Amino acid sequence: MRHKTEGLRMKEWLPFLFVAWIIICSGSQHFRIYNSFFTNMFLLALAILYYLKKRVIMRANFITFLIILLYGGISTVYGVCIHGLRFNRNSFIIFCISCFALLILQSNMTKSDFKKKYIFFMTFETIISLVCFILVVYLDYSNLPGYYERIVPYTHQPGHNIVYLTPYYTMGWFSLNGFFKRNAGMFWEPGAHAVYIIIAILFAFSGALDGLKPKVRMLIVGILFLGVLSTKSTTGYMALALSFIFQILHSPQKWNTRKNLIIIMGVIWGIIFVALFSGVFDKLIYRSGSFGTRMNDTVSGLSVAFQNVFLGKGMFVAVSEELQKLNVIYISNGLVSLMIGIGVPMTVVYLALLHTGIKRLFQASGVALCCVELIFLLFMCSESLCTYPIFLSLLFLWRNESNETGLLLVKSRLYQQHRGMS
């Protein structure tokens, strides 16, 4: 009896922890960036533990896993041997662990389960971030539990920066004269936080919360909505508006005309109100701040990408020196960064696979599908996200997306016997 109880408890917490850690590994400032070794070793341990409980690997996912790693390896060797660039070992190891974790997770979890767990974790994270945001920005309170200052040496010039953060909330860095006046959550900057909140909103709008009461669904979406507003992210606001358009196009039977107008106008006026008092329009109109930086990153990055159109510079090599000559310190356009690494043809292949993954995950078509794809395109062009686990997950199948016959590569006899006995 005790054995069954312990198994039941693990069955409940292990999948949720696995999904939560996948999100954490997709950009948490404290964990992914500053404690990457521990974070990824823990992800690897979770993947192994989850596999030992399930004992299933889908053939299609295993083939995808091998192709990705094979091309990544060949591309890296090309960059090191042909272009003489430095091999980025840490990035390669992190990438391999991420792909392996997704291979295990997606071979054993349905997409509906994943979306629910994703929403619940991001709602929890958003609530914590909103509390911290109010304390830090409006109540001028900085002594949050776990607060510390991280000294980060510059790689491109003498000196260092100071990042103010906790494991669960990033407050800002020295170059911005102290704390953000924006909600970055646990991520490296507010725009990245907006990305992961909006993905949760899209999951909710694609039916992941249909089993819950309407008031609970509205409460969750409301919390996530406030989270996006508090990021004061230009990309986040545009994606938020597109998310509500997606909801109306994706589920027209759930909405009437009056309700549509009320919701759309409420969202638009809410975004305009916050944007007027947060400098968002300045970034759009005058190309100042992050917008100007991203524009420069895109133009300069494309000039480097087109130097090696077909094969790129290499996937896991350092190209920072070439970019610094063009006044690009850290390239923010993830799609252009991917072109630099793997070349234009393979980037097109990546986008084609991403299209298929988005179509499956959100079960959308037509204009609704275009809305979601435009949102993800905005994300990739504003942040270096293409090789982070959440985005890589779109390249793999989920457990319920194909007929099991002929797709199970590994299912041990011991597991089959255990299932038969139970």
For this entry, give a set of tags.
422 residues, mainly alpha, 4-stranded antiparallel sheet, two-stranded antiparallel ribbon, disordered N terminus
Give the SSE map.
Blueprint: H1 2-24, H2 29-33, H3 36-54, E1 57-58, H4 59-81, H5 89-108, H6 111-138, E2 148-153, E3 160-165, E4 170-173, E5 178-179, H7 190-208, H8 214-231, H9 234-250, H10 257-276, H11 280-286, H12 289-305, H13 320-324, H14 334-342, H15 344-362, H16 366-382, H17 389-392, E6 408-410, H18 413-421
Helix pairs in contact: 1-3, 1-5, 1-6, 3-5, 4-5, 6-7, 6-8, 7-8, 7-9, 9-10, 9-16, 11-12, 12-14, 14-15
Distance between the termini: 13 Å
If helices are DSSP runs of H or I spanning 4 or more residues, what is the number of helices? 18
Q: Beta-sheet strand percentage? A: 5-15%
**Assembly status:** single chain
